[in-house]
Amino acid sequence: MRLLVVEDNKELAGLLVEGLKAGGYEADRAARADEALHMAGETEYVAIVLDLGLPDADGMSVLRALRARLDATPVLVLTARDSVNNRVEGLRAGADDYLVKPFAFEELLARLEALLRRPQQQIASLLSIADLTLDVASRRVHVGGQLQTLSSREVAVLEILLRRKGRVVPKRLIEDQLFGLSGDVSSNAVEVYVHRLRKQLADRTPSIQIHTIRGVGYMVAETP
Ligand code: CA
Questions:
Q1: Tell me, what CATH number does 151's domain have?
Q2: Of 97, 121, 145, which one is at a domain's C-terminal end?
Q3: End-of-domain residue from the set 66, 98, 121
Q4: Residue 119: pLDDT band with limits 50, 70, 90
Q5: What does pTM read for this prediction?
Q6: Span from the CA of 52 to the centroid of ligand 1 (angstroms)
Q7: Which of 59, 76, 131, 135 sits a CA distance of 20 to 30 A from 40?
Q8: Distance of CA 83 from the midpoint of ligand 1 (Å)
Q9: Distance 79 CA to ligand 1 centre (A)
């Protein structure tokens, strides 16, 4: 049971890591946002404890980047900012729980236990639009209750669009998520996948449209 603690304050991070070890977990520490994303990409953590005030970026951007790259590791956000807005923003960005500093260490342990008890399906979400659902964990797509056969790339594109439904998703972002940052991508690869997905959906339901916003990207929306 390995956890990642993302906290720049050395003293607090040390206490957290030691406390978690005493609580029976293994724990790694990252002090910066870029370090956290790198470590989360290298190791399968059972959960991430994430401070929002980091030196190189807001912790919220770490959370968004994790979710954007389809990492569903449970995230417990730690913050000194006790405002409703921050809580709402954190939960919207995909945090699983929230703890405001200062907190009792026992409470952190209790919340982590609760997070880890949740079945995986609840952590990985079910995305939906109109009569379509996509189960992120099983990669199954249903339209009108019928299981659909889509290629894994098509499902990946669909997921990226559904996570931001009703908003424009930059083409560049889809490219990064499909092919990583290798840069070894033909310039129209995303267009090809979006085109295929659009055709697949058009064959199955009239209720969903993928709009092209020229020079920017794509947006999935319900047909008005
Ligand atoms: Ca901090």
A1: 1.10.10.10
A2: 121
A3: 121
A4: low
A5: 0.56
A6: 6
A7: 135
A8: 16
A9: 8
Rounded-to-integer distance, Cα 191 and Cα 171, Å: 8
pLDDT tens digits, residue range 65-87? 888 777 888 999 988 766 666 66
Quote the CA–CA distance of 32 and 26 in Å, as a whole number: 19
CA of 81 to the centre of ligand 1 (A): 11
Q: Please give the residue range of the domain that contains residue 62.
A: 2-121
* Of residues 106, 53, 114, 61, the one with CA closest to residue 78: 53
CA of 98 to the centre of ligand 1 (A): 15
In angstroms and rounded to an integer, the radius of gyration of the C-alpha atoms of the chain is 19
Write the CATH number for 81.
3.40.50.2300
Tens of pLDDT, residues 159-212: 999 988 888 888 988 887 777 655 566 778 899 999 999 999 999 999 999 999
Distance of CA 23 to the CA centre of its chain: 27
7 Cα–ligand 1 center, Å: 6
Domain count across the chain: 2
